[in-house]
Task: structure prediction
Amino acid sequence: MAMLPNPLPSLAASGLQLPPGSMVDATIDGAWHEPLLWCTDAPVAPGDWSRLRTAGRPLGLLPVLIDGGRRDQWPADWDLIPEDASYPGDHDPDEVLAAYWAECAPEELGAAHAEWPGLAPAPADTGSPRSPDDLAAEMADLFTGPEGWFPNTRAALVPARRSADILAAIGWSGPINYESDVARLGAVLRSWEDRYGIRVLMLGFDTLTVTVGRPPTTLDEARALAAEHFAFCPDNIDQAPPYDLDDYAGKSLLNQTTWAFWWD
Result:
């Protein structure tokens, strides 16, 4: 993947004040030639994500929460595949989603959905004073800590300039049964970053959660976006009754400030 120089090897000399943590270079084929991420050794607390963002960003490092899940799987056990990750900027998000749609939609949604509807327009600007980064920080605080929604969550620093590039930067293999080059999904995340103000908030072995700074505010906007979500992650609709795009749009996208994805 074409990226800027990795600052992780010199992290110890950077002067950053970090909690106890470890470098992760483990991949499905053994140790990578340089660290892919730094991860805390213990759960983090509210405020930690913001502190990591402030400290890491000048060095080219971005934070992401890490969910070990019910099986207590941390990044060293994630079968990362950095060798297979290209560069998100080399892919056109409309072309990527159109290809996914052609492969899945006609069979799973019916012949009426044979044609890819195209990218949804950006939602109307509501003039929210809260920035996408501020929203991500607020949600990170809700996720973490003993009283948080995910109390065992750890945090990582990843060498990436854009939040949308975090998956490709580590060679995340969560969607491996659907897409082997996660940078293609990263191209879509870049587009969502531009249109919807998303930030990659949390990764698990096969789960992704993003915050949404500019969510759809009308049902028409949500319906247009639902097609992209189906192409990006069909399991979100295929394995969630009533298996309907309009229902998904209304319940999971309209005015929702987080989106969650899971690949079987």
Observations:
- The longest helix spans residues 93-109.
- The chain has a mean pLDDT of 95.
